[in-house]
């Protein structure tokens, strides 16, 4: 099957929430159900950002234990520093690296009321298709 539903899987790293403090997202396994996805797109979506700066960082890991910031050469697009002027905005970042695990971190500075945001990882290009959904 060559359709998008059979070849993509969306996983939440940072679930939607109003954030006033730094948050580390849940790990996303690129080998979900043995599919070994070749491609990943990180989607950050904001709601109302009242105050503060919410700096997004994509991290990767080979072992789901030791995480590090993804080098800019392995990212398409720029990790955003989200402020109040960025209400209701969607950001997309392509991941070109080969590490198995990805997560998103939102580092918050200067927030009292904070801002609403979420980060999803869209996995595509599985070696085994169609995608298994749980």
- The helix-strand sequence is HEEEEEEEEEEE
How far from one another are the termini?
Answer: 19 Å
Shape call: globular
- Write down the CATH topology: Jelly Rolls
CATH architecture: Sandwich
- Report the β-strand fraction as a percent range: over 45%
Low-confidence stretches: none
Find the structural class using helix and strand composition.
Answer: mainly beta
Number of domains: 1
Describe the protein in words.
- The strands form 2 sheets. Strands 2, 3, 5, 6, 8 and 10 form a 6-stranded antiparallel beta sheet that branches. This protein has a 5-stranded antiparallel beta sheet with strand order 1-11-4-9-7.
- Strand 5 and strand 6 (68-69) form a beta hairpin.
- The radius of gyration is 15 Å and the shape is globular.
- It is built from 1 helix and 11 strands.
- The longest helix has 4 residues, at 4-7.
- Helix content is 3%, strand content 53%.
- It starts with a helix and ends in an 8-residue tail after the last strand.
- The protein is mostly beta strands and 134 residues long.
- The protein has one helix at residues 4-7, and strands at residues 8-19, 23-24, 28-29, 37-49, 53-61, 68-69, 75-76, 81-82, 90-95, 101-109, 115-126.
- It has one domain (4-126): Jelly Rolls, CATH 2.60.120.230.
């Amino acid at each position: 099957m060559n359709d998008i539903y059979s070849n993509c899987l969306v996983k939440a790293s940072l679930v939607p929430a109003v954030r006033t403090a730094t948050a580390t997202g849940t790990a996303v396994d690129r080998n979900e159900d043995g599919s070994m996805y070749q491609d990943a797109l990180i989607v950050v979506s904001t709601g109302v950002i009242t105050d503060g700066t919410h700096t997004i960082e994509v991290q990767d890991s080979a072992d789901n234990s030791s995480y590090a910031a993804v080098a800019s050469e392995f990212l398409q697009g720029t990790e955003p520093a989200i402020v109040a002027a960025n209400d209701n905005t969607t950001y997309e970042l392509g991941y070109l690296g080969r590490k198995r695990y990805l997560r998103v971190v939102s580092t918050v500075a200067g927030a009292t009321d904070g801002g609403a945001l979420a980060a999803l990882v869209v996995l595509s290009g599985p070696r085994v298709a169609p995608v298994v959904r749980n």
